[in-house]
Design brief:
29% strand; 252 residues; five-stranded antiparallel sheet; six-stranded mixed sheet; globular; alpha/beta
Length: 252
């Protein structure tokens, strides 16, 4: 079953067409990596499917539920209540962590489950402690974000997303703010999630990671999907000149 289905999505800012016609699907248990140069529309696409931006055209559905359909060439979103339910199907992890600085690590993770999902404090705390253990941060619950390294903060952000029990996770360049050693920490966590069949869509510039973990790789440039397929095809044997040029530049 496809957990995410996006058809003919378009997005402009004033005169700038950032997304020109994007269609893709993500199946349950699949890891999809999105590659592409800066300005190709990757992060805008992620913001659109996370509903942080509204789209100008196309349709989107999540876990079989339609969030936006196209009528007379215009996108029509479902009701606010339906969108709230749909938003619970995914979690989003940003490149800059976006933790609440004045909340402890535990409160960062338990706040939404308690206030949004209406979990009991005991249940939310149990889940949070299990997730911190899984992230190698069992002793950090009482810490505040400023007391943690960037890699630790990003692991807390992943735990916070997982605490909402999403069906899929979206990552926007989860390692771009980190040095190589801390990057390795986060990639290890993502590999573990992939081995547990967590459905993930990852905007990344980590080519080796994308090659080893992804079921599907998408290369975006100029607001369109230039090429998509298995990592061994798109990364190791690209058919498009733009993909080849981009990968060559990364190797230089």
């Amino acid at each position: 079953m496809d957990l995410l289905e996006v058809k003919n999505v378009k997005k402009s800012f004033d005169e700038l067409n950032v997304l020109k016609d994007i269609s893709l699907s993500v199946a349950e248990g699949e890891v999809v990596s999105i590659l592409g140069p800066s300005g190709s529309g990757k992060s805008t696409f992620l913001r659109c499917i996370s509903m942080l931006e509204t789209i100008d055209g196309g349709s989107m559905s999540y876990c079989g539920k339609t969030a936006v359909k196209e009528e007379n060439g215009k996108p029509v979103y479902v009701s606010k209540r339906e969108l709230t339910d749909i938003k619970h199907t995914f979690g989003l992890v940003f490149q800059n962590f976006n933790l609440f600085p004045h909340y402890s690590v535990l409160k960062n993770i338990t706040d939404a489950p308690i206030n949004v999902l209406r979990q009991s404090k005991e249940e939310a705390m149990k889940t949070a402690n299990e997730l911190l253990k899984k992230m190698g941060l069992a002793d950090k619950g009482g810490y505040y974000p400023y007391q943690l390294s960037g890699g630790q903060q990003q692991r807390v952000a992943i735990a916070r997303a997982l605490a909402m029990k999403p069906k899929m996770l979206f990552f926007d360049e989860p390692t771009s703010a980190l040095d190589p050693e801390l990057t390795a920490e986060i990639l290890k966590v993502l590999r573990e999630l992939a081995s547990e069949k967590m459905t993930m869509l990852i905007v990344t510039h980590e080519i080796d990671f994308a090659r080893s973990v992804s079921n599907k790789v998408i290369f975006m440039d100029g607001g369109v999907i230039v090429e998509q397929g298995r990592p061994e095809d798109v990364i190791d044997n690209p058919s498009n000149d733009r993909t080849r040029a981009f990968l060559k530049k990364l190797e230089a």
